[in-house]
C-alpha cells in the first residue's frame, strides 16, 4: 500500500532511550520505564505493558479545582512500554528543567511530565477570588515537562524596568520568581475584544519571561 500517509516523518520510530520526545508538532511520545504522569484523557495510543491510574491530588487540590475550574486532573502511567499523548491537536513543547528551575503554568496547558518534577496547585499572588481566583500549577525539580498551546506561543521577556500585562485567558505560564499583581484598566477594557467597561490583566514584574497563547477562547467556551 502506498500513500503520503506513510512518509517517514509520520512513522513511530523505536525509542532510543526512556523518557519523552516530540513525535511531531502535535503529539509527544513517552517511553515509559517505571512511571510518568499525564493529564487525564490525553493518551491517544500505547504499546507494551502499561497501566493507567487516576492520580489523586489530596483534598486541597480537589477543592481548588472544584471552586475555580482550574487545576489539573492527572493520571499515572506505570510499567514498560510507549505511550503517545496529545490534546485537541494543540502544539506541543518540551521544557527541560535543570536544578533550581521553576515554572508557573496554567493547568490547561500541561500535557505530561517526568515523576522527578514536583507539582503543586498554587493561588496566583495578587489575583484572589475577586479576580476569578486564579490557581496555577507550580513545577519545580529536575526533569521534562510537556506543554500544549493553542497556536504558536509568544514568549515575552520581563524585566524590572518593563513589566508585562497579560490577558488571564491567554497566559500559558511564567517564571515562578516573577511578582504578579492584578491590574484593572477602564480604558483598555473598551478596546480589548471589542468590549466595553473594565478589563482585568495580570501584571508580571521582575526578571524572567511570560508565555502567552494567541487565543483567548477557553476550552469551556469553545465546547459550546
Structure characteristics:
224 residues; seven-stranded antiparallel beta sheet; six-stranded antiparallel beta sheet; disordered C terminus
Topology, please?
Layout: E1 19-24, E2 27-39, E3 43-55, H1 58-68, E4 74-85, E5 91-97, E6 102-105, E7 110-113, E8 117-123, E9 135-141, E10 143-149, E11 154-158, E12 164-167, E13 171-175, E14 179-185, H2 186-189, E15 199-205, E16 208-212, H3 219-223
Write up this protein.
There is one protein chain. The protein has 224 residues and is mainly beta. The protein contains three helices and 16 strands. Strands 1, 2, 3, 4, 5, 7 and 10 form a seven-stranded antiparallel β-sheet that branches. A six-stranded antiparallel β-sheet has the order 8-9-6-13-16-11. A hairpin with a 2-residue loop joins strand 1 (19-24) and strand 2 (27-39).
Low-confidence stretches: 129-133, 220-224
What is Rg? 19 Å
Shape: globular
Report the strand count. 16
- Distance separating the two termini: 40 Å
Helix amount: under 10%
Largest sheet: 7 strands, antiparallel
Approximate strand percentage = over 45%
Alpha plus pi helix count: 3
Instruction: Briefly note the structural class of the backbone.
Output: mainly beta
User: What string gives the helices and strands in order?
Assistant: EEEHEEEEEEEEEEEHEEH
Indicate the mean pLDDT: 82
Amino acid at each position: 500500500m502506498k500513500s503520503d500517509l506513510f512518509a517517514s516523518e509520520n512513522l513511530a520510530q523505536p525509542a532510543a532511550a526512556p523518557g519523552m520526545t516530540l513525535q511531531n508538532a502535535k503529539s509527544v511520545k513517552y517511553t515509559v520505564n517505571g512511571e510518568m504522569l499525564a493529564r487525564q484523557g490525553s493518551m491517544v495510543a500505547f504499546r507494551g505493558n502499561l497501566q493507567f491510574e487516576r492520580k489523586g491530588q489530596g483534598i486541597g487540590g480537589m477543592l481548588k479545582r472544584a471552586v475555580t475550574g482550574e487545576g489539573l486532573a492527572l493520571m499515572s502511567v506505570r510499567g514498560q512500554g510507549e505511550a503517545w499523548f496529545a490534546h485537541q491537536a494543540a502544539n506541543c513543547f518540551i521544557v527541560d528543567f535543570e536544578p533550581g528551575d521553576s515554572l508557573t503554568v496554567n493547568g490547561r496547558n500541561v500535557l505530561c511530565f517526568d515523576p522527578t518534577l514536583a507539582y503543586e496547585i498554587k493561588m496566583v499572588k495578587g489575583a484572589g477570588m475577586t479576580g476569578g481566583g486564579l490557581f496555577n500549577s507550580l513545577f519545580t525539580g529536575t526533569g521534562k515537562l510537556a506543554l500544549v498551546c493553542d497556536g504558536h506561543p509568544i514568549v515575552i521577556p520581563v524585566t524590572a524596568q518593563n513589566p508585562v500585562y497579560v490577558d488571564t485567558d491567554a497566559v500559558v505560564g511564567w517564571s515562578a520568581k516573577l511578582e504578579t499583581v492584578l491590574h484593572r484598566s477602564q480604558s483598555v477594557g473598551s478596546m480589548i475584544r471589542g468590549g466595553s467597561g473594565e478589563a482585568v490583566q495580570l501584571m508580571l514584574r521582575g526578571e524572567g519571561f511570560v508565555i502567552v497563547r494567541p487565543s483567548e477562547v477557553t476550552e469551556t467556551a469553545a465546547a459550546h
